[in-house]
What does this fold into?
Amino acid sequence: MSRYEIEHSTRFEYTAPITETMMELRLRPLDGAGQRCLDFQLEVSPRTKVGSFHDGYGNEVHYFNLLRAHQRVRVTSRSLVERSEPEAGGATTDDLVQDFLRFRSPVNDVAGVRNLASRHTPADPSSGASVEQALDALAVEISHDFQYDPAVTNVYTSVDEVLELRAGVCQDFAHLFIAAARAMGVPARYVSGYIHLPSNAGVTEGASHAWAEAWVAGTGWVGYDATHPIRAAENHVRVAVGRDYRDAAPTRGVYVGAATGSMAVSVRTKMVSDGN
Amino acid sequence: MPPAKLLGAQYQSNGFYDEMLAAPAQPRPAYRRLYDRLNELGTDELAHRHDLAMRMFRNHGITFAVYPDEQGIEKVFPFDLIPRVIAARTWKRLEAGLKQRVHALNLFLEDVYGPKRILRQGVVPAEIVLSSSLYLREVDGLPAPHGVRCHIAGIDLVRDHKGEFLVLEDNLRTPSGVSYVLANREVMKRVLPSLFGGYPVRPVEGYCHQLLDNLRWLAPKDVDDPTVVLLTPGINNSAYFEHLFLAKQMGIELVEGTDLLVDGDRVFMRTTKGLRRVHVIYRRVDDEWVDPVFGRPDSLVGVPGLVHAYVAGGVTIANGLGTGVADDKAVYALIPKIIRYYLDEEPILPNVPTYLCSLEADRKYVLEHLERLVVKAVAGSGGYGMMIGPEASAAERERFRKRIEAEPRAFIAQPVVALSVQPVFDEGRLRPCHQDLRPFVLTGKEVSVTPGGLTRVALKSGSLIVNSSQGGGSRDTWVLAGSHDEDSDTA
It folds into this structure.
């Protein structure tokens, strides 16, 4: 069992004052599947009323609108999360997951995706173990054949482009994994969250992370991180799920005003003692 | 010498079910008076009245724009002078069938965006419902006021070679056409008032009152005198005329996305006197465009934050989000089962037999019989994305074969229904044209159907496509009240 303190900060800066920001946040770590969110605090500056609801994926969504002139917005969340291995057989019984087979841009059904999938056809599609093995190999191939390069893609990049570039970031690799899994007939979804990979003093500084989950009959959702490549483990903290990045993005919104904006994100995760 | 009968032996129904004539020069009972009166008027007079009618449509700006013309060309919706007559007894059954269907579809929507019992029990295959591109998992579990999601439905009916009414498709997103029902009646009453003599035609004008009543009923609980608006994508939308027309008839504001703003889970309209709270939005903007935070971020016609206000109960939108899953053409094939499951009743109105290309056996049959079938894209509407096998070229059939093989879930196929015909007055003579019927079903406290609906006529000779975007026209549709010695449109 591990406990993490996470601070996730996003700053939006505009070249001139804007008149309106409308934003949705998916920042509260999920409960369930071996994870509990023990504490969550959200700070939005300039100060404004923040509402919340649960979307159809079970994510807790916070939202706000700023209707007065402003030139920067800062959103900071602080979470305390307890993480353990999910109990065997403790998977959700919700087996109505067929919509996670459907392709939708940026997760497109293209020849490159089908080729990738065809190289990892499970030996026995009716066996969960065989499907899991095939997906492990898929994650390994993506991480080996694609270069991690934060300079070549953006949040709108489709899997077609990633296949051409042979490079991308965790979001692109998650999309590609999802596309190939769906092409194999395995429902797959996107996970937005954090990975704790301490460099010094037990602290990770960096950005948020993304990976994929595949639905394995009899087991439930299994996490695959095609960036590293590993199964999602105790150092993965799940924050939001969806069909693809758009459903699970930590922040999404629109602004009104004659200005261009820039965004900067920082994430800090720290393992803490659970008191025992 | 008396003039030759308009519908004498020279008029041939070509073996189709003719709604007006049982045989040459033999009108069905409900059409007898109408038939006599048309003959009394004669060709020249009818031509004159037709011109008059078209001028009225133009002068009143009753037009529509056709996609995919980027220019958005405004056209007058072609109109035929000869009304369609539906006997009281026939309508009674249609009305009951439509109410039953829409009631069941609302229960279905409430279930698939809630407990999903029908899917969990395997009554209909979950993969067909959930694989619909119109199923919105993002609104799963979000409540709908009064449990109603589809407030306004347009159900397309056709009559086959035996004269039997079948449901061809359901339109549960933003169905259009009701403005033509109202305009056609208005124009008919002015241009040919004498035709109505002796016919107890049920009025259609109640539609707007009923719709406004229903929309007001949807307002958040604490509101006594709710403000209702109609949200349009704007003047480039093909149905803009209708948006304008309905807003005017209901006495509500017609607004575009930029006229509204969301503040603290409430929606406000910008007016010359400042902000005014809006409680109910009759939206004619599709799900994915309605709010750029919720759907497409590049939507310029939506209202940022509208869905938050809706989820928080500060505003109601009609139709609700995600209703399209119930008019997906693959889900259509399941509707008889859906009706039996929720209502424990037999469907009153039958479906057209439908092959689902996602099922292997069906797909095999479809690919072997393309020249005999109508193939439709499941999420399509407006007559776009379809192929009529017997009329298609070999190249077009081949193109559809490839598309079906590449994406089977995206297509269904149906046998060609020999749509009924009725005479159309065209340049001084009468010729048979195929037609369908789109009644409008409103769901408020109760389900109601405006008598009749929009009869769309395929004006291109021999064509089966009645959509206004594809060269269709329309005619007034008369539902007769009470029992009557002429109360039969079939004998």
Notes: Chain A has a mean pLDDT of 93.
